[in-house]
Amino acid sequence: MARASREQTDKNREAIEQASSRMFRERGLNGVSVAELMAGAGLTHGGFYGHFASKDALAAQACKRAFEESTARWERRLARAGGDRKAMLANLVEPYLTAAHCANPGVGCAAAALAVDVAREPAGKPVRQAYADGLRTMIDDMAQTVASDDPQERHDQALVRMALLVGALTLARATEGDPLSDEMLSAVRAHLLGSTG
């Protein structure tokens, strides 16, 4: 009986993490209540504290999970390029700067979807560290696209490329429905894919 109960507890926690990762990206950290998160997981509100000490703890875990999903996508795209740095960059940029990605934050990049909300959280909140850790991993992945033997140059170029990607997607989402949104995605995509190094 205890084993079945433990397995169900693990399944419930997984469902909560999955739902919250999606819902926080869609609606923001403060745009969804614990009751809504639990309903999104198919569970009742009362069971929340059996899994997480607080909404802050869940936000950090959901952020971590969202970055893990983003990183897994990026690593698959990098691997498909077979070491060709230009192809690696294209494999990251082309699906990222699209109207489809813009319209679907719940299944998209954690860096863009959570940036504004995390920036508004106090410095001591655990979600801030989860965000920074996840972003560092994505920056490291982006550094693989830079053709340089100098580690500092690769890192610096990766920072610039990440800022362009996340900034363009964030602005495109903020102007979605206006021609400026598509212009932003197209211009930054052309700039990044035309860049060398």
Task: Spell out the blueprint of helices and strands.
Layout: H1 2-27, H2 34-40, H3 55-80, H4 85-96, H5 99-103, H6 110-120, H7 126-143, H8 151-174, H9 179-194
Protein name: TetR/AcrR family transcriptional repressor of nem operon
Region (Disordered): 1-20
GO molecular function: DNA binding
CATH architecture of the domain at 59-194: Orthogonal Bundle
| CATH topology description of the domain at 59-194 | Tetracycline Repressor, domain 2
Instruction: List the total number of helices.
Output: 9
Helix residue percentage? over 70%
Distance between the termini: 59 Å
Principal-axes shape call: globular
Provide the succession of SSEs: HHHHHHHHH
Task: State the name of the first-level CATH class of the domain at 59-194.
Answer: Mainly Alpha
Radius of gyration: 18 Å
Strand content: under 5%
Low-confidence stretches: none
Give the class from helix and strand content and strand pairing.
Answer: mainly alpha
Q: Let me know the CATH homologous superfamily of the domain at 59-194.
A: Tetracycline Repressor, domain 2
Mean pLDDT across the residues is 92
Main sheet characteristics: none
What's the total number of strands?
A: 0
Protein name: TetR/AcrR family transcriptional repressor of nem operon
Domain HTH tetR-type: 10-70
Keywords: DNA-binding, Repressor, Transcription, Transcription regulation
GO molecular function, one term: DNA binding
